[in-house]
Specification:
With 96 residues, this protein is mainly alpha-helical. It has one domain. Helices cover 74% and strands 0% of the residues. The protein is built from five helices and no strands. α1 packs across α4 and α4 runs antiparallel to α5. The longest helix is centred in the first third of the chain and has 22 residues. The protein is elongated, with a radius of gyration of 15 Å. 19% of the residues are buried.
Length: 96
């Protein structure tokens, strides 16, 4: 951390930016919070965003998040199946 920066304020700002990113992804792919449930979506997305910077655009962020949630989210079958279907459906050349 550079001198003069308040670590607590930086932490708060980083959390706010992760929440904003989750909001944008939820607008691009509203099915994600619907499939996972709003609270679980927020929890999983926060964990994902800590380890994965935005690499291309929000469409790919949504797809990458879904892959991460499937691989590391510990989701029950009732959530995994529709999430897997959603992701495979959207991996085509353009979203429907």
């Amino acid at each position: 951390m550079p001198p003069g920066f308040d670590p607590e304020r930086v932490r708060i700002q980083a959390r706010a930016l992760r929440a904003k990113r989750a909001d944008i992804v939820a607008k691009v792919a509203p099915e994600l919070p619907a499939i996972l449930g709003e609270a679980e979506y927020r929890r999983l997305f926060a964990a994902y965003a800590l380890q994965h910077p935005l690499r291309a655009n929000y469409r790919w962020d949504a797809l990458d998040f879904a892959a991460h949630a499937l691989a590391h989210g510990g989701l029950p079958r009732a959530r995994r199946r529709p999430l897997k279907r959603w992701r495979s459906h959207r991996l085509g050349p353009s979203p429907r």
